Amino acid sequence: MPEFSEPGAAIVEQSVADATTRLAKANKSAMDFMMGAQTVLLEEIVFAGNEMLERSRTEMHLLSEFVSKMAGSHSVRDLKTMGEECAQHQIDFLRRDSERLVKHGERMIEVTANLFKNRPET
Fold first, then answer.
1. What is the CA radius of gyration of the chain?
2. Rounded Cα distance, 37 and 42, in Å
3. For residues 4 and 79, which has the higher predicted lDDT (pLDDT)?
4. What mean pLDDT is predicted for residues 46-64?
5. pLDDT at residue 56 tops 60
6. Is the pTM value of this prediction over 0.70?
7. Contact yes or no for 70/82 (Cβ under 8 A)
8. Disulfide check for 78: which of 49, 51, 58, 73 has CB 3.0–4.6 Å away?
9. With helix as H, strand as E and coil as C, how does the chain read?
10. Neighbour count for residue 106 (Cβ, 10 Å)
11. Are the CB atoms for 86 and 65 separated by under 8 Å?
12. d(CA 95, CA 100)
């Protein structure tokens, strides 16, 4: 087996050192990406839980309002007016809920883009 000359050994050692450095950078990049993805996932779980709780509160408020108005109505005209008001409240609720979902979708796209943007180019 031939022995490497001193300059040849230095080149091999430098090549191994460069490969090790690149591998370490790649591992760090992968770890940062995975930690970022995990953070985004956990934030989404918390966000979804909070949204479901808030939606339940709002629906319960609308239901209690509907029941109290039903109990307070004394004529068909009152029932009709109450139905129109409750329908308008429901439409407003759906509009606000849709706007929140769109804003959340935009935020998720931005967070995901930043997650990919922070990766170094190789």
1. 30
2. 9
3. 79
4. 87
5. yes
6. no
7. yes
8. 73
9. CCCCCHHHHHHHHHHHHHHHHHHHHHHHHHHHHHHHHHHHHHHHHHHHHHHHHHHHHHHHHHHHHHHHHHHHCCCHHHHHHHHHHHHHHHHHHHHHHHHHHHHHHHHHHHHHHHHHHCCCCC
10. 10
11. yes
12. 9
